[in-house]
Amino acid sequence: MxxxxxxxGCLFLAADIFAIxxxxxxxxxxxxxxxxxxxxGLVRQCQTLHGRDxxxxxxxLPWEWVTTLFFIILGIMSLxxxxxxxxxxxxxxxxxxxxxxxxxxxxxxxxxxxLIFPTGFYISEVGGQPYKLPNNTMVGSSYVxxxxxxFFTIVGLLFAGK
Length: 162
Known about the structure:
- This protein is α+β, with helices and mostly antiparallel strands and 162 residues long.
- It has one domain.
- Helix content is 56%, strand content 12%.
- It is built from four helices and five strands, in the order αββββααβα.
- A five-stranded antiparallel beta sheet has the order 4-3-2-1-5.
- Strand 3 and strand 4 form a beta hairpin.
- Helix 1 runs antiparallel to helix 2 and helix 3 packs antiparallel against helix 4.
């Protein structure tokens, strides 16, 4: 296994971790209200009212965000398989070719999720329009982690392609 394969494997692993962290964290969209704050995620929605403890519930997701979650989970699975194939390439050199294609599939899935997610900004909790957030609302750290996962996947593909 050469150095570029090790580097691409580390980048794919980092992208995998970032994508998993983005799903688990309910901070995809932050709405700042005068009475409290609301963090909307893909698997949890958390609200803090007047400095009390944060309460979290499963959100009612629009179909756009369900599709986004589905694509991200498939992308995570693709990157996990890619990492396993890159480890196997130490013994079976042919595995790197399959790893590149599966990583490319993961990148495409992540990019499709990134394009679909902003179309769900119209939900009542956010109050925006597709691809347009209201002024008092911003994307949160989970969305940034997800964008970093896309970035690391693309850079990993560049190293894997040699």
